[in-house]
Give the backbone structure.
Amino acid sequence: MPYSGLLRFDSAQMYRNESEVGSTILAFLSSKANTSSLKREDIHFTTKLASNSSYETARKSIKQSVKQCGLGYIDLFLLHSPYGGKVARLASWKAVEDAIADGEVKTGGVSNFGVKHLQELLASKPRVLPAVNQIEVHPFNTRTEITSFCQEHDIVVEAYAPLVRALRMKHPVISSLASKYSCTPAQLLVRWSLQHGFVPLPKSTTKSRIAENGDVSEFEIDAADMKQMDGLDEYLVTDWDPVDAD
């Protein structure tokens, strides 16, 4: 059920939750709790291809995701990783392009792609350019080479694990700056991401924290403090790291 005005939902074939997320969205939209009279088009649903393979397998997999979620179409469909090799990546992207042409998907993108994977895709002269690259980005893993390439090519960076999975909430720089700006460490990290032009995807199961993480419009981190946070980079990977895959 959407909380605190949250309209974006991030799913994946690998998470095995497309059906649950879709049914929960539909149940909310038709319930009395939907006091704003939201409709399907007000919801943004993302899901991802579990693995790159042949065109036929990928195309069938996308159709299955549309069926599983039950929402009629998918707003954003991503290749979840660059694993599988060049042939599989490009074949899977062609399946995304055709899903867009057929109205099953609104927008296509990638996830965990490094610069070389993005260059490869752009060099293939695709009919549809990737709109998004969803990667782990936070002050402790800034991935400047990837984010700069994306921004130079109008590819939106969606930052997953923007809160560093709570591994650095008590870092002295984070604690000090959170105190300076009268915010929580999580709010500081979300704000850092936004000021870099990223779309942060913070996770929480607590309603109050979901609302809190989105309440970051009342302050701005100054340039010197942004630079200090940028300098915390230690290439901390909190999950998987496929960006250098062959």
Q: What stands out?
A: The chain is about 40% helix and 15% strand. The first helix runs from residue 18 to 29. The beta strands are 8-10, 44-49, 74-79, 105-111, 132-136, 156-160, 199-201.
